[in-house]
């Protein structure tokens, strides 16, 4: 998961705080990897990581976009969470039980 997040960050050249999907992706990947390395069951680690992604996505409402399509609308986007971060957090939340039960989870 951390390799995936690193590659996405590298390709998109986005960082935490840019108000992009990376604002949800990196907290998810970091939380999941940390919890698995601590010996937490993958199911629980995924749920905690999805929660971290959701919180991080919600926090983007306070940010001005520095990358992506919303950048030209910076002032208008204040108060609204980034749609990419929000969507990604929702995807992680919904797909978690399916990915974990299929045994396809690696840190």
CATH architecture: Alpha Horseshoe
Q: How does the major sheet shape up?
A: none
- Counting helices, strands and paired strands, the structural category is mainly alpha
Radius of gyration: 14 Å
By CATH, the topology is Serine Threonine Protein Phosphatase 5, Tetratricopeptide repeat
Number of domains: 1
How is this structure best described in words?
This protein has 107 residues and is mainly α. The chain has a single domain (2-101), classed as Serine Threonine Protein Phosphatase 5, Tetratricopeptide repeat (Alpha Horseshoe). 64% of the residues lie in helices and 0% in strands. The chain is built from 5 helices and no strands. Helix 2 (22-37) packs antiparallel against helix 3 and helix 2 (22-37) runs parallel beside helix 5 (83-101).
Please give the structural blueprint.
Layout: H1 2-12, H2 22-37, H3 42-59, H4 74-77, H5 83-101
Features:
mainly alpha; 107 residues; Serine Threonine Protein Phosphatase 5, Tetratricopeptide repeat; elongated; 5 helices
Short description:
The protein has helices spanning 2-12, 22-37, 42-59, 74-77, 83-101.
């Amino acid at each position: 998961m951390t390799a995936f997040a690193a590659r996405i960050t590298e390709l998109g050249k986005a960082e935490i705080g840019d108000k992009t999907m990376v604002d949800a992706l990196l907290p998810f990947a970091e939380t999941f990897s940390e919890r698995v390395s601590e010996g937490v069951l993958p199911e629980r680690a995924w749920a905690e990581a999805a929660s971290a992604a959701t919180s991080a996505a919600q926090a983007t409402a306070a940010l001005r976009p520095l990358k992506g399509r919303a950048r030209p609308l910076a002032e208008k986007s204040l108060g609204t969470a980034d749609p990419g971060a929000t969507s990604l957090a929702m995807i992680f939340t919904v797909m978690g039980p399916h990915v974990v039960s299929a045994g396809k989870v690696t840190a």
